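hey so i finally got around to running the thing on that chain from the lab meeting. sorry it took forever, my laptop kept dying and i had to restart like 3 times. anyway pasting the input first so we r on the same page abt which one it is
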Amino acid sequence: MEREGSATQATMPEMEDVIPISDAVNGYFAMWNETDPLQRRAVTTATWSDDASYIDPLFAADGRDGLDAMVAAVHEQFPGHRFRLTGPVDAHHGRARWNWELTAPDDGPAVVSGVDFAVLAPDGRLRTVTGFLEQPTGAA
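ok and heres what got predicted. didnt touch it at all, straight out
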């Protein structure tokens, strides 16, 4: 019997069934940068859980279809732009965070940057991501 306020150890799936956080985050950026819808869907399926959701100050998406529509809209608004990781990924207890920026074509300057916070599914894929926007370094 557990006492109120006592700590418990979380049950995790077998390690061979869990994708590494680096794979999940690499897949996240691959999804954002992929312009081919079929390739993007394959990456999204490998990276996000069935009950996926994303929200930031400008966009919200539920499910893989919603994610795909959101990314397609970003590609229409920012053609040729690329998202990239700008620092280490910090992760623990099924949660993760990372900093990123969206750069103009041909490795141009960052037009927006931010930090994302994720909750991982038991298999290591992304379940939810909440993004916060920041002013890029050096932006006026």
